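Protein Record: Sequence and Backbone Structure Tokens
======================================================

Structure line: whole-number tokens from a learned vocabulary of local backbone shapes, matched to residues.

Purpose: to set a sequence beside its fold so the mapping can be learned.

___
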Amino acid sequence: MKRREFLRKVVTVPAVVAAAEWFAGDRTVGVRPVGITAVVYDERYADCRSFAKALERHGAVSFATAGDAASLWHGALRVNLARKGGSVAGMTPDSDWVVSRTCGREQGLEAAYEGSHDCRASDQLLHRLLGGSARREVCAELWCGRSPWAESVASGLVHFSSQNGIWVTSDVAVATDVVVTQSSPDHPGYLTTWLLRRATLRG
């Protein structure tokens, strides 16, 4: 199935999410897309490094957490955002995602997408993708299977972030898709991918 056909046919499964307010960008009609200018990653894992490299090819600056995501957000990443603006993508353990979400909110960034990538109970990797339009783009790339999964997630986020014109959101504020792929040899068991963006209203 071609990617465009998949995006037209994709079926969403509503999810009950306690923190649905994180996806404020998906509830707002008339949000202008902003490119990804920074990527946060855990340098210990090959999947994270591949994700960061894929986004570097599209102009993002990579920031390794070096075991201290909070210092990164209050140091070099903060300087980068002040200079370039834009969105921040990440592939990290869940604890660094919690830190990034909090620090991002302090800088006016809101979650547009969150993915969990879990192989703790199987040799296969279960991807649970949460959000709106960004989730559908990532899901389409994973289903196409043209690249390793980490690069596919990065490609989906690039597609979402580089859309031209005004992004008109889906009627589904928060939904989830599930995709299964093969796990990578050094996957730690559980990783998260995410996208924080600045919601800009036109009106």
Notes: The first strand starts at residue 13 and ends at 14.
